[in-house]
């Protein structure tokens, strides 16, 4: 292929990936700005990013002023960036008059609050009629901004909660709670977003400019590219690492999937399987420490647990999730007789680490500083280091234009996260002020008959339904306020309860019927969407099992355990997930009969559940099946090594 043909092919692939993003990822459906208007919008975004940093490091304003000004900026910029419909972006430099009006009025309601904050605080619930109207307008325009930036699911959920609140209290009191207090729109989610999530999002934008995504893909190639079915294993590793930083399962599915999915198909994997691998791995990036799609920082607020503790305790569940996918990919490759990529076409691990390993320094510094310093300071210092390491290579060196690009991209990503947090605050406010949370807890507890396993099942279903099409951060806020208290009431430790609901909110991205990440993967793989989603759910089987294990026995989260118990739990859990993968894939050395597949799954589950008796039973069952399959395949001459 000539250089010109390669350029055309790359451009076509990029255009296809962008089309998929615009279809499945709401935040990619933005207006087209060119020339002077493009520069104006660019510098407004840069200014917002800089302002977000200053309110954390320099300004020392009253809490409500900081949060309201932050949301006001979000709302105004969203109406500049996001059209009302997908067709609204076709004409460059075009923005309807009503979008400008909504942007100025919506943002203006928050800046009215900023300018009159002290007087409104003194008024208490005795609002003037015009203040009630302004607050109502602010809430409604915020909902419309959220619909444009993140999609309609979370708006429907929030609207239902608002309608319920209106049946319990007067309009004026509801508007006061939702708009003028730190219980509503400018509540805990926006506090977390404006004080440190925004800083981590900006850090991620600068990290991308260092070329770390390409480094992750190259690193995965050097580790697993030459093994059986190498391209799929590369997809698992690289998507886990990239998804951890990006914070978007759909966005990561498309960006890394544009490279990995065609490679998997060319290696011999079916389209449904290739799209599913990418979707499952990208979704898993949201549960990958240390960043966990920014939800870990919200978990600090809601679970009242130190960040370091959350990050450490999330390691084993995340490792089991990706181990399950990795093993299934390997067994599928063995079953199909797929080979890896030629070693001479792959980067050498040692040389790669020597040449580009410094790109990991900002992430390592981030983890260290989060544990030892404040999260805001950790994000800022890690960003500074990302800028420094970008200077090591000409390809990634940050000149002024690239520096501004990083700030602009950070601000753009903040818009979707921030507005989702604002609307999540509405849901949290209604739950707090109306007592519906207590009613929901009572309903689930009664429906479960007092049996924890039934309560877990009902909570799982609720989380998957509420999590469909909702961004990671807002997803967790909804689960933390509606579902986690149910499990805590049933005796599940606080962190285990929050991790349980977080996991099942996240897997909604690959669980039919919505499964946005799986559908995005199927669009690139040109496969059947529902079949791709079902394959993704099978690959991510650990995400449906592990939360039950640590909810029933928190030892998996290293709660109330000794170091030697931790070592044993890690070893038996990894073997357990291997047993489950054997059963779901149905192959090792040769095809496994269905009855033995069931036995393998049972053995894997007993190994996953911490305990001496269950470990022994699991070892006997899984080990026995592996031994039997090997002897049988060897005897029949079907042994696939």
Explain briefly what this protein structure is.
InterPro entries: DctM, TRAP_DctM-Dct_fused. It comes from Oscillibacter hominis. Among the domains are: 174 residues, no CATH class; 81 residues, no CATH class.
Explain what this protein looks like in three dimensions:
With 641 residues, the chain is mainly α. Among the domains are: 20-193, no CATH class; 561-641, no CATH class. Helices cover 76% and strands 1% of the residues. The protein contains 31 helices and two strands. It has helices spanning 3-24, 35-57, 63-81, 97-115, 117-123, 129-150, 153-168, 171-179, 188-209, 212-224, 230-246, 249-267, 271-284, 295-303, 307-313, 315-336, 349-356, 361-372, 375-390, 400-434, 436-448, 452-467, 472-482, 484-489, 494-506, 516-525, 529-539, 541-552, 563-585, 594-608, 612-636; strands at 587-588, 590-591. Strands 1-2 form a two-stranded antiparallel sheet. Strand 1 and strand 2 (590-591) form a beta hairpin. Helix 13 runs antiparallel to helix 16 (315-336), helix 13 packs across helix 27 (529-539) and helix 29 packs antiparallel against helix 30 (594-608). The two termini are 36 Å apart. The mean pLDDT is 85.
């Amino acid at each position: 292929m000539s250089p010109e043909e390669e350029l055309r092919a790359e451009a076509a692939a990029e255009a296809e990936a962008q089309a998929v993003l615009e279809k499945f990822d709401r935040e990619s459906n933005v207006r087209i700005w060119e020339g002077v208007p493009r520069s104006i919008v660019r510098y407004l975004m840069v200014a917002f990013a800089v302002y977000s940093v200053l309110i954390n490091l320099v300004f020392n304003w009253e809490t409500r002023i900081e949060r309201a000004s932050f949301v006001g900026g979000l709302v105004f910029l969203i109406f500049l960036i996001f059209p009302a419909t997908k067709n609204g972006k076709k004409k460059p430099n075009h923005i309807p008059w009503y979008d400008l009006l909504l942007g100025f009025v919506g943002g203006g309601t928050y800046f009215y609050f900023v300018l009159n904050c002290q007087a409104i605080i003194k008024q208490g619930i005795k609002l003037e009629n015009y203040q009630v109207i302004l607050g109502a307008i602010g809430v409604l325009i915020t909902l419309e901004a959220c619909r444009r930036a993140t999609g309609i699911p979370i708006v429907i959920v929030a609207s239902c909660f608002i309608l319920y609140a209106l049946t319990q209290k007067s309009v004026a009191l509801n508007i006061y709670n939702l708009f003028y207090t730190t219980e509503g729109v400018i509540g805990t989610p926006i506090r977390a977003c404006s004080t440190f999530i925004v800083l981590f999002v900006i850090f991620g934008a600068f990290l991308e400019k260092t070329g770390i995504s390409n480094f992750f893909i190259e690193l995965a190639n050097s580790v697993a590219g030459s093994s059986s079915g190498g391209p799929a294993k590369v997809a698992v590793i690289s998507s886990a690492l990239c998804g951890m930083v990006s914070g978007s399962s759909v966005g990561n599915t498309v960006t890394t999937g544009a490279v990995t999915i065609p490679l998997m198909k060319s290696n011999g994997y079916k389209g449904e399987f290739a799209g599913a691998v990418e979707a499952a791995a990208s979704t898993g990036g949201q549960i990958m420490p240390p960043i966990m799609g920014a939800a870990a920082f919200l978990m600090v607020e809601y679970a009242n647990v130190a960040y370091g503790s959350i990050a450490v305790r999330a390691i084993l569940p995340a490792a089991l999730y990706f181990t399950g996918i990795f093993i299934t990919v390997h067994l599928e490759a063995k079953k199909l007789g797929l080979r890896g990529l030629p070693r001479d076409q792959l980067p050498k691990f040692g040389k790669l680490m020597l040449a580009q390993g410094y790109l990991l320094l900002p992430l390592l510094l981030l983890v260290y500083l989060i544990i030892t310093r404040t999260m805001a300071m950790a994000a800022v210092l890690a960003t500074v280091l990302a800028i420094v390491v970008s200077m090591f290579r000409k390809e990634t060196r940050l000149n002024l234009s690239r520096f501004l690009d990083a700030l602009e991209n950070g601000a753009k990503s903040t818009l979707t996260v921030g507005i989702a947090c604002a609307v999540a605050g509405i849901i949290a406010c209604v739950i707090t002020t109306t007592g519906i949370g207590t009613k929901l807890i009572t309903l689930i507890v009664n429906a479960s008959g007092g049996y924890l396993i039934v309560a877990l099942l009902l909570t799982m279903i609720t989380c998957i339904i509420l999590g469909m099409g909702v961004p990671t951060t807002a997803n967790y806020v909804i689960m933390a306020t509606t579902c986690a208290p149910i499990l805590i009431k049933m005796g599940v430790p606080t962190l285990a309860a929050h991790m349980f609901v977080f996991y099942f909110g996240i897997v909604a991205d690959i669980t039919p019927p919505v499964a946005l990440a799986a559908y995005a993967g199927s669009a690139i793989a040109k496969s059947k969407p529902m079949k791709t989603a079902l394959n993704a759910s099978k690959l991510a089987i650990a995400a449906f099992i592990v939360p039950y294990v640590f909810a029933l026995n928190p030892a998996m989260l290293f709660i109330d355990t000794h170091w030697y118990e931790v070592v044993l739990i890690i070893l038996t859990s990894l073997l357990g997930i291997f047993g489950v993968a054997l059963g779901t894939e149905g192959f090792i050395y040769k095809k496994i009969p269905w009855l033995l597949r069931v036995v393998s799954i049972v053995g894997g589950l007993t190994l996953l559940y911490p305990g001496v008796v269950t470990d022994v039973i699991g070892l006997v069952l899984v080990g026995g099946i592996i031994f039997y399959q090997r002897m049988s395949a060897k005897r029949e001459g079907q042994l696939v090594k």
